[in-house]
Amino acid sequence: MLLSEVTEHKQRRLAVALLLLGALLATALAAATVLADEPIAPLPQAVDYDEAKARLGQRLFSDPLLSLDRTISCASCHDLAAGGDDSRPVSLGIMGRSGVVNSPTVFNARFNFRQFWNGRARDLTEQAAGPLQDPVEMGITPAELENRLNREASYRAAFTAVYGDGRISFARVLDALAEFQKALVTPDSPFDRYLRNEQPLSEQELRGYLAFKELGCVTCHNGINLGGNSYQKIGVINPYRNGTAADHDSPRGDRQALTNDPADRDLYKVPTLRNIELTAPYFHDGSRATLAKALEDMGHYNLGLKLSLAQIQDLFVFLKTLTGQRPAILQAGPDAS
Amino acid sequence: MRLKIYLTIAFAGLVGLLFAFFSNQAKEQTVARLTLMGTVSELERHEQELAGEILRGSFFLYHDYDQLHAILARLRENLAQTEDLHRQIGADPGQAIPTASGALLAAYRETATRREEKLNRFLTVNSTLQNSAVYIPRLGRQALSAASATPAYQALVAELTATIYLTRNSLDLELLQSLALPLEQLRAYQPPTGPLREIHQALVAHGEVFQAQLPPYRDLLNDLLATARDNPLTAMHRALQEENNAWLGRLNLLSYSFFAAFLASVLMIIALLIKTARENLTLIQLREALTVNATTDRLTQLANRFAFDNDQEQLRKPLLFLVNIDAFKHINDLYGVRAGDYVLTAIAAVIEQLKPETTWAKSYRLGGDDFGLLIEEPAGFNRDLLAQQLLEAAESEPLRYREQPIRVTISIGISSQRPLLETADMVLKEVKKSRRQKFLIYQEAFNLQERISTNLGILQTARQALANDQVLAYYQPIVDNRSGAVAKYECLVRLRDEEGTVLSPFAFLDLVKESSLYPEFTKRVVEKSFAAFRDLACGFSLNLAIADILDDEVRNFIIARITGQPETARRLTFEILENEGVENAEMVQAFIARVKEAGCQIAIDDFGAGYSNFAHILKLSVDAIKIDASLIRNLDRDPQARIMVRTIVDFCRQLHIQTVAEFVHSAEIHAIVREMGVDFSQGYHLGKPAPTPEQPL
């Protein structure tokens, strides 16, 4: 075959390919605009929960009695007055011990398909048992916890009111804590109101939302929580680094820690983006102090590109529309503080 | 029987309880099985939904994964419910062995668990690929528009993007092969520093991600879709259907068994009912037999006294014929009890035969030899005719018992007056007394109460007379017809009441004879007569009834008198009533022999009335006979009476038996009897009874 023929042949192939590309793009886009629903759903404005039980859970949530040395409560690391998390990269447990991952927010946690960064708990009840017994968090045994609570007349009365008898079991404690967290939903964010056609977004916010989709953020951050419904890898294009020297071998609390599968390295449950402006620092290890930095680094790790300042600003403005109202249970009632 | 009834009830109750238990079980099972089929179908539907959602997640560049998790959650919930239900039908005793559906359900659970893990992996890869898929066109555009991009480079980028899109949409791994070349060439390309370099690097990185991730993506997607399409649910659905059919078969069998048991209970109850009915029938028959026995006389098969009492109450115009066999006791004595029974049966047959057919009628055996014929008396009924028919049938011919003729006579008392039996018995007694009438019909004049009170008064008078020695002997002369002189006196009993009136025997003797006073009466007359004739030279006669002779006290008294006054005794004649049984009673014959030995004479009284029998006279070797008043009274007018008297006199003369005519009330009669050759006469014409024997004329 002559060289010229080869070139010609290649050019013809290219032309065909381009033609095909155009046709396919058109088809895909047409399909996307016509058929796809919005990939994000608004939070419900009211949620179902047992009020009395949730109030009991609320009390337990803030009670340092639940930690071995009586120094910390659930609320120590999940600040309900802030974003439902704490401002440390990793939380401090009893006796000043610290863990390996950033405290995730308890707000809207009920909508996550799994709990914990690596999804090791199926639901809130299962989740609650973790930090209580974790030696670097609250470090208490179920028996000790039951003893302590049973000694408290006010708890016995409260449990009787909710469960019909004053028998305080670990399972009931978990149940009450979970019920409280079910109430921790932050509805009516500007974006939810936009989704409900109640209030338009600003031009920049809309640009940010478009970028959010065009850049592929939404392929992982979708659903009601903009995340929390799949495991994804941080560092698809560029491997994840947290900036420390021992970084490569340090425990990461990722999926691999659970499955021992090397393919699961750096796989985490996608974190929710709701109330994201309130939950700094960012990433699973809390290694990014600001949202702008987190956005920039996500571009690096998963797109392999440096996002433009304009893109970051647009995305930032969009993400701020995800901040909702404080949960109703925290706004009123005797234990609201 | 009672035990059987209880057992049947217990059996039926048990069947009922078992049926209730099993039908409840079956109902629960049915509900569980139907619901289970429903939840399995639901699971299959969820599988389809899930497959659709996976396809959507795969097709669209970005998609809300929550939908997938929601379907998964529903599926999990459904699966748990299915497992619950399956455990529930597993509780069926017939299902103790592991079932195909159980194994398939467990397999499905495992599949579902594995699938969830795969789905999570799929979502990871899907997002990665889509992220790249979203981003590569943008990078391509940037790369193509970069100032430093050569046409060859542009061609490579175009080829890369095109191949990626073809591959992503076809998931054809052969197409993926064609990605290797441009990717290789692009990797080898070193763009100049500047914006293109960064874009180029990203482009290559995304291309490599795509190349690396597409095969596992394709496998996961195919795997997931295959799982949704082909999982143990289909097989389980079929297995469940088969198990349900088998279960229904067993249920049918069970219901047939219950039907059979039910049928058995019903048949048992029917059998018991039939048995009870039969036993009732037997009881009714038994009762009827007992009633018949209780109301029937065994010997004669006639109804008995008990039946009579019942029956007579039912009748509006009852008429009773009370039939009595005369001297039945003597038949028994003479021929034996068997012959007596034969006689009773024969008379019963006679009465039964003559029962009127035109009205209600029934015959009874009312006592030993008393028979009754009770009828509802129609208007104009001829009572006499029936009585005569009865007499004719019973008496016309002697009965024959073992060739032995037995002559039977009967007496009939007839009454339509309640109390039937008492009134009929009263007239029956009259019949017996009269000896001339064979039947009598009770009349109002026989008023029972009146008679009884009169009788009581007479007996009282008699008792007082005994106490006050007012039982007297009167003496009537008997004249020798040849000499005209008084030959002897007949001693007759009299009674003086409190007012001094002397009563003739007609007024009291019959009553006294039936009472306990009679022996004393006889003794008084004997005593007074012996006293009266001790110092007189003439003869005297005393009347004796057979009852007197049979009475030990009286007999011994008389014999003591005869022994004590032998001279007086030689002038004494005993007048004995001609009567059946006289010649048969040993006691009587012994007495007669004894008194004749002492020189007493024996006369037959009232001969010619009733059943006069010459043979009797011979057997008794009597010294005299007294011709009955009924013959003497009409001698002057009745030629037949004259013939009879003449015959009697001739007969007696040849046997040297003296004859006495009584009731000689006139000279004419006296002349006739003298002319006829009667030896002695007595009567009002010749001398009335007087308190003392007159001196011989």
Short descriptors:
heterodimer; A: 337 residues; two-stranded antiparallel ribbon; 2 strands; 2% strand; globular; B: 697 residues; alpha/beta; eight-stranded mixed beta barrel; five-stranded mixed beta sheet
What does this structure look like?
Chain A is mostly helical. Chain A contains 14 helices and two strands; from the N terminus they run ααααααααααβαβααα. A two-stranded antiparallel sheet of chain A has the order 1-2. Chain A is globular. Mean pLDDT of chain A is 86; it is low at 29-36. Chain B is α/β, with parallel strands linked by helices and 697 residues long. Helices cover 63% and strands 12% of the residues of chain B. Chain B contains 23 helices and 16 strands. Chain B has helices at residues 2-59, 66-90, 100-145, 151-170, 173-188, 195-229, 232-295, 305-314, 328-335, 337-353, 383-395, 420-434, 448-467, 509-514, 518-533, 546-550, 552-564, 566-569, 586-597, 614-620, 629-632, 639-654, 667-676; strands at residues 318-325, 361-365, 370-376, 399-401, 404-406, 410-415, 439-441, 471-480, 486-496, 502-503, 539-544, 572-577, 601-607, 624-627, 658-661, 680-681. In chain B, the strands form three sheets. In chain B, strands 8-9-11-12-13-14-15-16 form an eight-stranded mixed beta barrel, surrounded by five helices. In chain B, strand 6 (410-415), helix 12 (420-434) and strand 7 (439-441) form a beta-alpha-beta unit. Chain B is rod-shaped, with a radius of gyration of 69 Å. The mean pLDDT of chain B is 87. The interface between A and B is large, with 47 and 41 residues.
